[in-house]
Amino acid sequence: MNVQLRRIDADAVIAIGSNLGDRAATFQAAVRALAEAEGVEVTAISTPIETVAVRPDGEDPDAPAYLNAVVLVRTSLAPRALLSLLNDLEREHGRVRGERWGDRTLDLDIVDYAGMRSSSDDLTLPHPRAHERTFVLRPWVEVAPEAELPGHGRIADLLAALEGRA
Hints:
Layout: E1 10-18, H1 23-36, E2 40-45, E3 49-51, E4 53-55, E5 58-60, E6 66-75, H2 79-92, E7 107-113, E8 118-119, E9 124-125, H3 134-143, E10 148-149, E11 153-154, H4 155-162
């Protein structure tokens, strides 16, 4: 029996953030490494925006400001393999996982993976707080204005509601 394996490609949305070091250089290097990774094709990159740091108890204007963007990719990697790649890139750029929501040289999160909905200890899809984060929605709407966040609706509507325009 001749069985042919078909490569399955999926669209994914990755949020990128940094508030330590040379943020712009870190962004460029991380996006370049992502684009060069086997099984990943970068299809769009938003304009980076600067935002105030967010802590578990709210915004922290005294912390270094974040640079945030969204990268759209087409990938043949399974969600956990993509997460592993992102974690490796974070480590390569000096990311130390210590304080929850602490300052970081590089933060890469899978926001959406082909509309998949799942939850485990290490990966929840879609990202559980993306719908309440303007620093994710604003760059995302720039590169994919008609996109939807599974379980929450159109990202343009979510952003409008957060910014008080709904």
